């Protein structure tokens, strides 16, 4: 764990506490720039960052760079709890926030929760990347519809299948329906409605969709509800 604290006595106290709790301190910095250098050289698992630092770079700015460049979780330490500080700190997506002075059990709980959350996010990113690679290798597209909000998220492969540039393609349920071949419109829509209404255990439909060039392309669509309740 890297400690970033510009009050020497406070920094030494935190270092002793962490050692007593079984953590290894990789370094202590009192300025934002020094903190970035230590992160680059030691690659800690977590950073305890005081928001108010001397010099040109405060703790929030340093934390934003640490998360962006190294994806290392940061817990803020501060003696201030005013709304303006909290609001600005939240933008940098910290993994915790401790108001000084704090007890050993508070800092230990914050560290363990931050490490767990960071590991969970890393596993999710790895899972998403594996799915992306699998879809690309199989030349399959992913269409994710939130039936409550109507929001649609699609993979790059999905856009490419229909002849669109992924970076400019914006899918909606209405657009999907409008691209259906007139002869397949009723059947494909009914398959979809039967599935989300629970009248069918599986969504499996073949239909034609119009590509960007105006051609018709046969699509085999397999669907699964991954989260559902009675409110829909």
Notes on the protein architecture:
- The protein is of the alpha/beta class and 232 residues long.
- Helices cover 45% and strands 18% of the residues.
- It has 8 helices and 9 strands.
- The strands form 3 sheets. A 5-stranded parallel β-sheet has the order 2-1-3-4-5, with helices on both faces. Strands 6-7 form a two-stranded antiparallel ribbon.
- A hairpin with a 5-residue loop joins strand 8 (203-210) and strand 9 (216-223).
- The protein starts with a strand and ends in a 9-residue tail after the last strand.
- The model is unreliable at 228-232 (pLDDT under 50).
Between the first and last Cα atoms, what is the distance in angstroms? 44 Å
Briefly note the structural class of the backbone: alpha/beta
What is the helix fraction of residues, given as a range?
A: 40-55%
Overall, the morphology is elongated
Rg from alpha-carbon coordinates: 25 Å
Largest sheet: 5 strands, parallel
Order of adjacent strands in the largest pleated sheet: 2-1-3-4-5
Number of strands: 9
Percentage of residues in DSSP E strands: 15-25%
Can you write the helix and strand succession as a string? EHEHEHEHEHEEHHHEE
How confident overall, as mean pLDDT? 86
Number of DSSP helices? 8
Low-confidence stretches: 228-232
């Amino acid at each position: 764990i890297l400690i970033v604290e510009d009050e020497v006595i406070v920094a030494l106290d935190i270092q002793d506490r962490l050692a007593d709790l079984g953590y290894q301190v990789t370094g202590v910095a009192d300025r934002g720039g020094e903190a970035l250098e230590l992160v680059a050289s030691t690659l800690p698992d977590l950073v305890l960052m005081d928001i108010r630092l001397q010099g040109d770079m405060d703790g929030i700015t340093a934390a934003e760079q640490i998360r962006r460049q190294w994806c290392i979780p940061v817990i803020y330490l501060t003696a201030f709890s005013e709304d303006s500080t909290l609001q600005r700190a939240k933008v940098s997506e910290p993994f915790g926030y401790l108001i000084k002075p704090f007890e050993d059990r508070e800092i230990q709980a914050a560290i363990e929760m931050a490490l767990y959350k960071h590991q969970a996010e890393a596993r999710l990113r790895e899972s998403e990347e594996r799915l992306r690679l699998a879809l690309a290798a199989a030349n399959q597209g992913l269409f994710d519809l939130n039936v409550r909000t109507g929001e649609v998220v699609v993979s790059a492969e999905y856009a490419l299948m229909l002849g669109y540039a992924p970076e400019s393609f914006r899918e909606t349920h209405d657009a999907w329906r409008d691209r259906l071949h007139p002869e397949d419109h009723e059947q494909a829509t009914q398959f979809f409605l039967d599935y989300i209404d629970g009248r069918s255990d599986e969504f499996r439909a073949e239909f034609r969709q119009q590509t960007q060039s105006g051609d018709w392309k046969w699509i085999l669509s397999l669907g699964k509800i991954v989260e559902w309740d009675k409110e829909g």
